[in-house]
Amino acid sequence: MKTAIFAHRGASGYAPENTMPAFQLAYELGAEGIETDVQLTKDGIPVLVHDEQVKRTTDGRGFIKNLTFEEVRRLDAGSWFSRKFTGTVIPSLEEFLEWAVDKPLYLNIELKNNKIDYSNLEAIVYDTVLRFGLQKHCTLSTFNEESVKKIKRIGNSISAALLTSRAEGNPVTKAAKLGADALHIKYRLLGSNVMMHADKQQMPVRVYTVNKKVHMLQCMKLKADGIFTDLPDKALEYKNTY
Ligand code: G3P
Ligand code: CA
């Protein structure tokens, strides 16, 4: 099977990350999947933002966990990237799923709970995905090992992936021990040994964040199940000629 191309935070090389314009563009460019990051506002609404603080990607300040949904929606999440995206807002998970529901896209929702312990994040995201009937088209991923176990305790309807950037030990074994259905690994950790172990365990391996042509081709050569890239159009071009 060929390597699936996931747009990392949407087509984030061309539009402000984790916004509806970035997701829409990824879809129009032909991405097979979309990766996004989820956190909870002060009032418990799941919203799509990568950093714990809003400073880098909006005109505001503070932690997502300390802002209400209404306050988050007042932020401009587009103009930092380019003036033409001024007025773009941070989407809720619900808005994203509503947009994705009739599209042939695979979704990877990363729970951003490795630095902040959003105690109910797993259940909230899980239930929201189920509500849209997208469980077969979605993987929940996290760097937080306890969170992988929590997701799997909720049920078996949605697959869970362990994210790792750590070189120590065998990441495939670690993911399997936690009950993960997939391993999402930093590019520099990918090698034929990882793929060999993954094949034995029948564990899909997806690789982040792959933006260079030579790295994309290496993932395809090693038959990685997926890559996360800011440049989905480039990856698709290489994939089609590979
Ligand atoms: O899900 C893959 C990748 O997005 C993980 O790293 O920092 O870009 O969220 P990061
Ligand atoms: Ca991510």
From TrEMBL:
Family matches, as Pfam families: GDPD (PF03009)
Residues covered by the GP-PDE domain: 3-239
InterPro entries: GP_PDE_dom, PLC-like_Pdiesterase_TIM-brl
Protein name, as recorded: Glycerophosphodiester phosphodiesterase
Species of provenance: Virgibacillus xinjiangensis
